[in-house]
Amino acid sequence: MINILTHLGAYFLMLRKAFTKPEKMKIFFKRLSVEIELIGVDSLALVSILSLFMGAVILIQSAYNFENPLIPSYAEGVATRDSMLLEFSPTIISLILVGKVGSSIASELGTMRVTEQVDALQIMGVNPVNHLVLPKIVAGVLIIPFLILMSMFLGIVGGFLATLITESVSTTKYIYGIRYGFEPYYVVYALTKASVFAFILTSVSSYHGYNAKGGALEVGRSSTKAVVYSTIVIILFNLILTKLLLN
Amino acid sequence: MIEIGNISKVFGDRKILSEVSMYLETGKVNMIIGQSGAGKSVFLKCLVGLVETDAGEIWYDGRNFTDMDYEKKKELRREIGMLFQGGALFDSLTVEENVAFPLEMFTKMTKAEREERANFCLKRVNLTNSNKLFPDEISGGMKKRVAIARAIAMNPKYLFCDEPNSGLDPQTSIVIDNLIREITLEYNMTTVVISHDMNSVMEISDNIFFIFSGQKWWEGTRADLLKSENKELCDFVYPSSFMKEYKKRQH
Ligand SMILES: Nc1ncnc2c1ncn2[C@@H]1O[C@H](COP(=O)(O)OP(=O)(O)OP(=O)(O)O)[C@@H](O)[C@H]1O
Ligand SMILES: [Mg+2]
Asked: Which of A242, B14, B97, B194 has its CA 20 to 30 A from that of A21?
């Protein structure tokens, strides 16, 4: 318990050091664009493929389950859209990004820590947390919601493509379904979640990487910890946010 | 000049430094020697605030470093150049970008001016034609030289080197040692060098401080060192029976 509190305290202290005015805005924006590329652009392919296939699978599964004549024939479209919007895109994609982005953030910072690069920054009179961590958090919060938005769209496209190979669902009914009773609030809801998850993912992973001690072994460990703790915190906040936002 | 008054450091229940006082002169190479694990690196990290001291004071030219808050320390650190034991180059930046990094961060120089300064510093350490390489593409000795170039890029008043020639061949060691000595004299810096290499001690040191069991056991010049009869110091300087024999014959 005391251990958790110490970590929590250290985590918030780190955030306070991160959210200070950068030494030079020009360098901050340069770092930011690098991070946007690392976190966002490099994840495009993974997120696209996952979303397309997930959308297709959700459609095929609901077609299989909804064979009852009482269920309207556009229900598969509604189901695919809502599953993507409400849960798959914001939560599952975030969790997958934890594995990809979180572990790479932690191992990058961990390596910099154990090879004394962080100390070197400190000695130059740079605030290392601000210089290294802030661009990662800002980049994540800016770019991950875009990935999530793209994932929703591609999931629905995936469902559409699946109708072409599934006899029981007609393409026109699917298109009717995805427009039926559309709640724009679901998108707001998903993007709110995505931003919060992006913040958790980048900051918790940075915390574990930045506080790595020792050698290469510890860097690996910190990267594992980053994934485990980011996942736990995201799942916890998923519950809290769902309760708050959907009531 | 740096004055150190009675600094102590405890890790857990292990006393690493106890009441170490020193007076490190400007324009001189101040060398700190001692066995592996004696606390030399910890001492240097205390000097620059990477490790918090438990007691004592550190004064940089009359400015009390121990009392400063984070922002003030940050200001003062811009006058410090430090060479880490492993080089600590930024591995996402090229050699030239590494050297130019502090310039980009803290000066209003244009890109061309920064490149010129970086090239000047790299020439100063006899490193040309490697500007566009990344740290993992150059050798250990080259890394050390890049690290020195980066440390002197901002014209520091204080230069700290943690084992600048560990892991280098004797010839390259001497090149690096002489380089440190030359730039110290040229820019009138207060230089502190940690070493357990007696060659470099004899090559370049002005003042020598011997750390033993967490204390400053002995201090003096090169000439003093040769004459000293301090037992622990002699054991350190003449570790082998061959060297001990040699010393006996000299007397
Ligand atoms: N962060 C730390 N936490 C706990 N103990 C530490 C820490 N840093 C150093 N020590 C201990 O302090 C002692 C002195 O370490 P230090 O690195 O200063 O030795 P050194 O004199 O530089 O040795 P070497 O010549 O091998 O580099 C060692 O026993 C080490 O275990
Ligand atoms: Mg050491």
From this structure: B97
Is A115's CB within 8 Å of B91's CB?
A: yes
Looking at chain B, how many residues does it have?
251
What six digits make up the tokens of A167? 């006899």
Neighbours of A247 (CB within 10 A): 5
Q: From the CB of residue B251, how many other CB atoms can be counted at a distance below 10 Å?
A: 6
Which of A111, A112, A119 faces B84 most closely, judged by CB atoms?
A: A119
Q: Which runs of E-coded beta strand occur in chain A?
A: none
* Closest residue to atom 4 of ligand 1, CA basis: B11
Nearest to A201 by CA among A87, A35, A30, A52: A35
| Residue of chain B nearest A23, judged by CA positions | B105
CB contact under 8 A, B105 and A116: no
- Residue B66, both tokens: 């121990």
Q: Are B48 and A27 a contacting pair at CB < 8 A?
A: no
Q: How far is the C-alpha of B23 from the C-alpha of B220, rounded, in Å?
A: 11
Contact B40, B217 (CB under 8 A): no
CB-CB neighbours of B24 under 10 Å: 21
Complex ipTM: 0.89
Q: How far apart (Å, rounded) are the C-alpha atoms in residues B126 and B124?
A: 5
Residue nearest atom 22 in ligand 1 by C-alpha distance: B41
pTM (two decimals): 0.90
Task: In whole angstroms, give the CA distance from residue A119 to residue A114.
Answer: 9
Instruction: Name the 3-class secondary structure at A157.
Output: helix
Taking only the tens of pLDDT, chain A with its 247 residues reads 888 899 999 999 999 999 999 989 999 999 999 999 999 999 999 999 999 999 999 999 998 888 888 888 888 899 999 999 999 999 999 999 999 999 999 999 999 999 999 999 999 999 999 999 999 999 999 999 999 999 999 999 999 999 998 888 888 999 999 999 888 999 999 999 999 999 999 999 999 999 999 888 999 999 999 999 999 999 999 999 999 988 7
Residue B196 beta carbon below 6 angstroms from any ligand 1 atom: yes
Mutate to test the interface with A, among B52, B74, B83, B159 (most CBs of A within 10 A): B74
